[in-house]
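Technical appendix A lists one of the benchmark inputs used to test multi-chain prediction within the project. The record comprises two sequence entries:
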Amino acid sequence: MTEKIAEKPTSTSTSTPSGTAVEFRGVTKRYGAMAAVQNVNLTIRRGEVHALVGANGAGKSTLLGILAGRTAATDGDVRVFGQPLTTGHPRESKAAGISVVYQELTVLPALTACANVFLGNEQVRAGLLDEREMRTRYEARCEDFGIDIPATTLGRELSVASEQMLEIMRAVELDARILILDEPTAALSHKERKFLLELVKRLKASGVTIMLVTHNLDEVLDVSDTITVMREGQIVDQAPVDAWTKRSMVQVMTGKQELLQVVRDRSSKASHPVVFSARNVTLPGAIEGISVEVRAGEVLGLAGLVGAGRTSLLRSLAGAESKATGAIVVNGVEFALPRNPREALRRGIALLPENRKTEGLALGMSIGDNVTLPMLERVSRIGLVSGTAQLSAAKEMLTQFTLQRPVGTYPVGELSGGGQQKVVFGKLLLADPEVLLIDEPTRGIDVAAKVEVLQAVRHFAEEKQRAVIITSTEIDEVIDVADRIVIMAFGRAVGELDNTSHQVAVQDVLRLSFGVDEEEE
Amino acid sequence: MSSSTTETSSTAAVSTRPPAPDQTATRRGITLQKFGRDYGIFFALVVVVIAATVVYPRFLHWDNLSAVLAQNAPLGIIAIGMTFVIISGGFDLSVGSVFAAAGTTAAMVAVATGSVALSFIAALAVGLLCGLVNAVVITILRVNPFVATLGSMTFFSGLILLITHNSPVTVSDSAFQWLGTGWLGPVPVSVVVMIALFALGWIVISKSAYGRRVMSVGGAKEASRLAGIRVDLVKGSTYVICGVLAAVAGFIAASQLGVGQGNAGVGLELQAIAVVVIGGTSLLGGEGSMLRTALGLAILATLNNIFFSLAVDTNWQGITQGLILVAAIAFDQYLRKVAPK
């Protein structure tokens, strides 16, 4: 074990890389009918920094997950330094010399910084932990990298940036030959980011092959040797870094626009009264100083990359984030941001959450029970729920949806994803909010149900002249349903596009999301 | 209150120093909450012991203390195993049944063969087997630990009562009773065994790579898996340890009484969990220590001794134990809420 340190200099001397580190051959990953990654052929050269870029759902993280052993490939081969890799087992990947720094972090709160670095790689002497050895090596690494985290600091006391440093140290301690970084800088401040990128360059100089996924295209251009662009689970282009600009990357990652043709009123809502506005909403670590307003009958779309803070914004507005600050104005009356969902509902703000199964439905109860859950008083007499009143209320609410199941008895858990979404939606419509916030309404549901759900969103806004804020990772969908689109990136609102006079192009949304200046080139 | 909030926020601050050397490492001060969480249990013990000496002046006399320790040795040994299970994020309700089954089996083997060594081995084998059953049901069949061990609790105890026809097995061999009633100098053998096992448990949990993995599996299952730890193996192994230790406890108890009884361990599982939790080990898993369990045991044993000396209705013991258990958890939850993260 102790020779590891001594070996390091030799690997530095071979820093002029030759040969292949990783090879994907015909790799496919299917979830049900959907292919997250489809027939990917990709070669990563030894000792390079190879960046994968693409829009939401392009398959970057899935591809890295296969290499890391987090998920198993449905089809195809992965070779690491010429040896075939059995995918789906983190231990196998680790044994092949692969280390991963994950987007969501894996530092254990109850262990010290030093213990976290050696997690799964504990140094042992005579059967017991060799704390002194680990401490010495930890401190040497810190010294070497210029990191200042006391060895005894507990995981729960660390900042996100510190956790990330520990994960990189963990990888280095494992003598990783391939380091995977999945959105390593998303949660970091500017200064911390610079520091991390310096670290990446140093690791590369010591012979480590690095695969990087990030939405930050400036970083990609800064540290990468090769850039591969993915779109819809496939590789669309690959070239050395010099051949790329931010603009050209965005151009390649944009597919053809596929709209669902949701029927809607294309007139401008600019003259309508403002129903709802949010001022200076901040959630530490997620979003900063966001202000939006929505007019009567208007659907406002939030577009942005995964992690841009769209969900955080909606949750903050709906009182689901207790640490959020800011103000809201509902029909001309100003309030502080709701502190809990109950208060938000009292102000007329309802959220259709991202995760319908755990946050929106009681899966064992019937369709009717679910739909009438928030308004049981209205269907009850002398405290007892009236079956007939409940049934008719539920039926009325669901008329706009095709649900070929008995409303009174059918358990919601046995409906399809689309069916469930319709029930959640029906439930919210019955509560009749002033402001409806909708997060990822179409995830995992089929196209017909998608159209129905989006149509119902339009219908709700237009008929009742209510305000709707909707977001989806699918940019096409936001364009499909929204009158106006606010683009978010890195926790801030970075632009706004009008979608009534002429249709917004996906390319424009992506350009703003990735922070590509119009003037570039 | 306001001063403590500022302190807690400084603890959570960034302690990485990117190239610019302006941000020095933080968290020099220890907050009151953190102090309460780390040392509160120790002060609780001091208070209880002072109370005990006040109401029962003979409390600290060695003849009393050694009797109290010997009486609580089986519970303490079970709690050691329970600490492993709980730190790994699990739960074991079957320890009382394993305790009874192992003690009874030992008594039967001692009667049948006349060999104390064989009877001890038989008890360990019962514990090992029961622990393995729990481990398989929980990690391979993926049954929730609560349900799995609730099931195995009634299964094991039903089985041993069926085999013994509900009747106690009496052993008259004095060698069999050595572990439970013998003395090593001034110290009861059972207490020596308990202390040795506590020390061993402490070394394994706090000083071995295995212990660190038990902790990481309980703290973050997926993160541990991604770090290449065999999560199921680690989790399962804690049930085996727990089963074997419950068997040791069962043997000692049978040896103390000279009787193996199929219904001996009723309620013991809840007491063992109470000992662990009162010590401050989180039921959520991922943290805790053997020292905490030892302190939890000391508190509970002292309280019971107070009640015993006052000759109050034994039902008060149950009532107080329940109150203390809930108070300990509520206190822990409160500290979690006010302390950082």
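Chain B touches chain A through 36 residues (CB under 8 Å). Residues 132 and 294 of chain B are 26 Å apart (CA to CA). Comparable benchmark entries are summarised in Table A2.
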